[in-house]
Write a structure and sequence with these properties.
GO terms for molecular function: 7S RNA binding; endoplasmic reticulum signal peptide binding; signal recognition particle binding. By secondary structure, this protein is mainly alpha-helical. Helix content is 63%, strand content 3%. The chain folds into three domains: 155 residues, Signal recognition particle, SRP68 subunit, RNA-binding domain (Hyaluronidase domain-like, Orthogonal Bundle), CATH 1.10.3450; 122 residues, no CATH class; 147 residues, no CATH class. It has a two-stranded antiparallel sheet. Helix 5 crosses helix 7, helix 13 runs antiparallel to helix 14 and helix 14 runs antiparallel to helix 15.
């Protein structure tokens, strides 16, 4: 197989050489001889091999024979030889839970069977299980009996299994999506839809019993899982059928492709519907419209002789906010699922259906705003809660206006919740939100009046207060500045601080401690003191006058 993949046209961009084909066939013949010897040894009476070991050896032998027939393009023989390992590896994989059998099936056996069936022009709607059961080697009755002992349904087709199981729904032959009906030509899709319908009936029975049994929302939501899995299998089968047609080069405008696209939209919408229904069940009754604190029961500590007394404890605010946060996350998941419906083929072109989806989106947005508003109300933020409740009421009213009447009537209170919304539920939500808006508007008004009266404290009027502009240079924090006294207006004549004139003249008469007396004597001595001072200045080296005399001309070097 490594040699074949290395020399394949996909890797080399050239046809495989005939020498490579002969070498591959030679190695396969040698491997078949070794596998025949191994099977003969294990089937001998002296060998202490189990039946499963013998079955696995026979399956490996027939897989090698099928590979050789595949290289020789003997499609009928190839299909017959690959049928035994297909049944054997499927049965052994279920029994041993070994991934090696799954790898062999997905990597070698199944692709070879599909290609051989394509070359034999078998109907592509025929499942692989039916093909391998019909082409199982007739001379391998011992292997067949061994496989039947391990799994009694090993040689039973999916169609027969659905009919044999009690309570299973009939396999549908067509599917309807928005007034368009198409036939189900693929058997795998039809079988998956039949199993999904059976799971839906089981879910409906559990939902009906839950009203009398008081089943918890968590247990009821878990009942949706099997239905969602069955619907997802149908969606996967539809996608695989479309991919197979695309690989064969079928034009997208072909009738088969168009029918499969309609089927794909229908089955994927069903998957999304049941996911939304599961989240609606987790939100609580009426989609979480009402919210009440939970009461926890705490046993009172008493002596063993006395009967224990149960004590009720109300739910804390933090716990209530946590529950509302979880509910908001569920609403977010529902909104994302509704948005994903628009990505399905052909949905965005249906204007009426898009309007219906937008109305349902508005309804769940209203419930999300309601949950967030309740968390604000628990934190004593009445104004925020009022704004959110008002927004939720607007969204709910718009949903009731835009939602078609036929969509509202399709929902029944006795059916398991999906994406349908009833008229009674919308009217109940609108009236409840109107009550909350009225209540919290009154609470907000009372809160505003209380805060206004508290802030009005009597203060004594000051005779004169400096304007705010006159205190900007001061390091003062104004907690409640008077905006009516920012500047002096109207302007008035008032004194301002100025520098006094005698401040400069006063420095002349200051007697410094060290040389104050010398300055006074020099002033009193007249010309003598001045002459003596000039002589002393001449004797001092480096005086400014001497330095100025040395500098002649421009830049001090003109006299050179």
């Amino acid at each position: 197989m490594a040699m074949k993949s290395a020399q394949s046209p996909e890797n080399t961009q050239k046809p495989m050489p005939s020498s490579t084909k002969r070498q591959i066939a030679s190695r396969l013949r040698r491997a078949i001889a070794y596998a025949e010897n191994l099977a003969a040894v294990l089937e001998a009476s002296t060998a202490k091999a189990s039946k499963m070991d013998t079955v696995e050896a026979r399956a490996y032998l027939y897989m090698l024979r099928g590979s050789l027939d595949f290289e020789k393009s003997k499609w009928q023989t190839c299909l017959k030889n690959y049928s035994l390992p297909r049944v054997a590896y499927t049965t052994l994989g279920k029994e041993t839970k070994n991934d090696a059998f799954k790898d062999l099936l997905s990597g070698i056996v199944d692709p070879s069977i599909r290609y051989a069936a394509y070359q034999l022009k078998l109907p592509r709607t025929k499942p692989v299980d039916e093909i391998v059961i019909e082409n199982f080697p007739s001379n391998e009755q011992t292997t067949k009996s061994s496989l039947t002992e391990v799994d009694s349904h090993a040689f039973q087709t999916a169609k027969e299994a659905v009919k044999a199981e009690p309570g299973q729904h009939d396999i549908p032959t067509s599917i309807t999506w928005r007034s368009r009906k198409v036939k189900l030509e693929d058997a795998v899709i039809a079988q998956s839809l039949g199993a999904a319908m059976s799971e839906e009936e089981t879910l409906q029975e559990k939902f009906t019993k839950s009203k009398s049994d008081n089943t918890s929302p968590t247990d009821l939501a878990a009942s949706y899982d099997r239905t969602i899995e069955a619907r997802q299998d149908a969606a996967d089968a539809t996608k695989a059928a479309i991919d197979d047609l695309a690989a064969e080069g079928v034009d997208p405008g072909d009738a088969r492709v168009q029918s499969l696209q309609v089927t794909r939209t229908a089955v994927n919408y069903a998957v999304i519907e049941f996911r939304i229904g599961r989240n609606r069940v987790l939100c609580g009754p009426s989609d979480g419209l009402f919210f009440e604190p939970e009461q926890r029961t705490i046993p009172n500590k008493q002596s063993s002789t006395e009967a224990p007394i149960q004590k009720q404890k109300s739910e804390s605010t933090g716990r209530q906010v946590s529950r509302l946060r979880e509910r908001t996350a569920l609403y977010d998941a529902i909104l994302q699922s509704i948005e994903s419906v628009k990505d399905l083929p052909g949905v965005i072109a249906d204007t009426a259906f898009v309007t219906e989806l937008d109305a349902k989106h508005s309804y769940f947005r209203a419930l999300k705003c309601l949950a967030i508003g309740r968390s604000h109300a628990l934190n004593n933020e009445k104004a925020n809660a009022l704004a959110l409740f008002s927004r939720a009421r607007q969204l709910c009213q718009s949903a009731a206006t835009d939602l078609p009447s036929n969509s509202q009537q399709s929902s029944s209170p006795n059916s398991a919740p999906k994406l349908d919304i009833s008229t009674s539920l919308l009217s109940t939500a609108t009236s409840h939100l109107t009550t909350l808006v009225t209540r919290y508007r009154a609470l907000t008004e009372l809160s505003n009046l209380t805060s206004t009266s508290t802030n009005k404290t009597p203060t004594k009027p000051l005779a004169y207060t400096r304007p705010l502009s006159d205190t900007l240079h001061l390091n003062i924090y104004h907690d409640n500045p008077d905006l009516n006294n920012i500047v002096n207006y109207p302007p008035k004549l008032q004194p301002i601080p100025v520098k006094p004139l005698f401040f400069d003249l006063a420095w002349t008469y200051i007697d410094y401690p060290k040389h104050g007396k010398k300055a006074v004597q020099a002033a009193s001595g007249g010309g003598k003191g001045a002459a003596a001072a000039n002589k002393e200045a001449e004797k001092r080296p480096g005086t400014p006058e001497v330095q100025e005399q040395k500098k002649k001309g421009w830049f001090g070097f003109g006299g050179r």
